[in-house]
Specification:
heterodimer; A: 231 residues; mainly alpha; MetI-like fold; 0% strand; B: alpha+beta; 2 domains; six-stranded mixed beta sheet; five-stranded antiparallel beta sheet; 20 strands; disordered N terminus
């Protein structure tokens, strides 16, 4: 049904988007918690920095990544020297680009759901002898699960559809960084490939729909569990 | 503890003396100051190591603020809070023991149950291991056994409060803080929960600080009373003593309306739905049916306007109760020009009555005189 090239693009896209989300999940939740529950100096600045990828042209983000994480960039040089890792033009680099672009969406969704958790419940938990870590893992996070799921799916979808930052930072290498959007772009640029482009377009829509429905289902289940009535 | 606490029957005594902690008296001592906008709190209060101490005052008098400072939910601007030999907060040395390490049980105005845990999970959330026997006792005492597998969303307001109280007590606290735990319940639920609370506070052997602005509630439950006014402590002492101080009448707003008598349940008359109770000096009263077993100790709240005086038992009267009493003090009411405030002595207990000055004059009542205190059976508050 699908060609090898199509399968390759799908698998690569899922791998890259999945890695991106896995990489940003914990820092994203941590930052969201900081923004939702703590007052500190430079909070507005942090908030702004995190949201930058949302408002900057993706190409600019990709270029900034290239400047900092490229072989001659300050962070890239350090990574290469210390770990022998080079990110540009690799699928890991594409994952980094996707993760950076998806980060603000994840933080926003998680922050909103954390803010919706009643601090009175957290205070009650602490009077019952729970320290901050226990309160976080037994009260705050479980009650924020619907938002965590929504945020994760949003971030996944954003990483999956990433184009500008990816092509700038990781380029368009078949089997390495040619994800669905990049493959689609390549096909559109090639005369006589309109049918193949349309197929990829449909595939993209199907993946997006499936992930949206899955997240909706998971979130509803989580909400039901929270408000579960008598058995 | 006042003598009226006495012995009790009914549910098994709940043991919280497990690990030698009980050797340390859990007397609470606070001397704190805190400013919040226009409001300033400045209170120095020592709470005895047993019994229920009520914090009473109108809203905005600082009751909850003080409670939060004790619990550690807020920090005092200056001052010190100690529980037994444990320093909870001391601004001079910069000590602030975090909430989760204070060993206090807190019951908030709202139940604050965790919506994603079943009732059982809520109860065991702060429970140390190996407290199984205590768990069963407390669940039975609070009557929440049938609720254990439910989710909190399924509970009524009164049930949720009982679970919250059980949850706080199962942490084996050294002090229980309750912030208006009956707020928002309707009449019947309120009376029901108050009954549970009164039983509970007589079973547990830790001190309780009970915040309320309802004199009826406090009369039913408290041993000691701290009256707060605009962030200051206006009066403090044993509840029975304070209630009898005629000069405190206005300050105690609401408490002037009643006194209470400690009684023992003797027998029930199901036909007329009445209960006979006995006072310590052997006198008896008939009151509306009490849901308590014989020989159970309880308090009766008697409104000052529900007491009439006679020099001998009148015939053909609907009054069913006449207590032999001696007039101990009389004073003109300072806010009702027509009224006299009287303090009567019934055995070892005191009873207050409010009569018109005219009645006092015409009956030629005077201090030292022995009279009959007539009390209508139906006037008893069935709060507990």
């Amino acid at each position: 049904m699908l060609s090898d090239a199509e399968w390759q693009a799908i698998a690569l896209s899922l791998k890259i988007a999945g890695s991106a989300v896995a990489g940003i999940a914990i820092p994203g939740i941590a930052v969201a918690w900081l923004l939702a529950r703590r007052e500190f100096r430079g909070k507005a600045l942090l908030d702004g920095l995190i949201h930058l990828p949302l408002v900057l042209p993706p190409v600019v983000v990709g270029y900034l990544l290239l400047l900092s994480l490229g072989r001659s960039g300050w962070l890239g040089q350090w990574l290469l020297k210390t770990f022998g890792i080079s990110l540009p033009f690799t699928w890991q680099g594409a994952a980094v680009a996707g993760g950076v672009m998806a980060f603000p969406l994840l933080v926003r969704a998680v922050r909103l759901s954390l803010e919706a958790v009643d601090p009175k419940l957290e205070a009650a938990a602490s009077t019952l002898g729970a320290n901050r870590i226990r309160v976080l893992f037994t009260i705050t996070l479980p009650l924020a699960i619907p938002g965590l799921l929504t945020g994760t799916v949003l971030a996944f979808a954003r990483a999956l559809s990433e184009f500008g930052a990816t092509i700038t930072f990781a380029s368009n290498i078949p089997g390495e960084t040619r994800t669905l959007p990049l493959a689609l772009y390549t096909l559109i640029q090639t005369p006589g490939k309109e049918d193949a482009a349309a197929r990829l377009c449909v595939i993209s829509i199907v993946i997006a729909m499936v992930s949206l429905i899955a997240s909706e289902w998971l979130a509803r289940r989580a909400r039901q569990r929270l408000q579960e009535r008598d058995l | 503890m006042t003598d009226s606490h006495g012995s009790n029957t009914g549910a098994a005594k709940i043991d919280s003396k497990n690990n030698g902690d009980a050797a340390i008296p859990n007397a609470l001592s606070c001397d704190v100051r805190k400013r919040q906008g226009d409001f300033s709190l400045d209170v120095s209060l020592d709470v005895p190591a047993s019994g229920v101490t009520a914090l009473f005052g109108p809203s905005g008098s600082g009751k909850t603020t003080l409670l939060r400072l004790i619990a550690g939910l807020d920090r005092p601007d200056s001052g010190r809070v100690t529980l037994g030999d444990r320093v909870l907060a001391d601004t001079r040395s910069g000590t602030h023991r975090p909430v989760h390490r204070r060993g206090l049980g807190v019951v908030f105005q709202e139940a604050r149950l965790f919506p994603h845990y079943r009732v059982r999970g809520n109860l065991t959330y702060g429970m140390p291991r190996q407290s199984d026997s205590r768990f069963d006792d407390l669940v039975a005492l609070l009557g929440i056994e049938p609720l254990l597998e439910r989710m909190p969303g399924m509970l009524s307001g009164g049930e949720a409060r009982r679970v919250a109280i059980g949850r706080a007590l199962l942490t084996r606290p050294r002090l229980l803080l309750m912030d208006e735990p009956l707020t928002g319940l309707d009449g019947e639920r309120k009376r029901e929960l108050l009954r549970y609370l009164v039983r509970l506070t007589r079973e547990i052997d830790i001190p309780v600080v009970y915040v309320s602005h309802d004199p009826a509630e406090i009369t039913a439950i408290a041993d000691h009373l701290a009256v707060m006014e605009r962030g200051r402590l206006a009066a403090y002492g044993e509840l029975d003593t304070l209630m009898l101080q005629l000069d405190l009448t206005r300050r105690l707003g609401g408490f002037e309306a009643a006194t209470r008598l400690a009684v023992t349940v003797l027998s029930h008359d199901p036909h007329y739905a009445l209960t006979d109770v006995g006072l310590d000096d052997g006198q008896r009263l008939r009151v509306p049916l009490l849901d308590l077993p014989p020989s159970h100790r309880t308090w009766l709240r008697i409104g000052v306007r529900d007491v009439a005086l006679a020099t001998r038992m009148p015939r053909d009267t609907s009054y069913r109760n006449g207590l032999i009493a001696q007039i101990e003090a009389m004073a003109a009411s300072n806010h009702e020009p027509s009224a006299m405030e009287l303090r009567l002595r019934v055995g070892d207990q005191r009873l207050r009555a409010r009569l018109t000055r005219q009645a006092c004059d015409e009956m030629q009542l005077e201090v030292g005189q022995t009279v009959l205190a007539l009390i209508r059976s139906v006037s008893f508050d069935d709060a507990v």
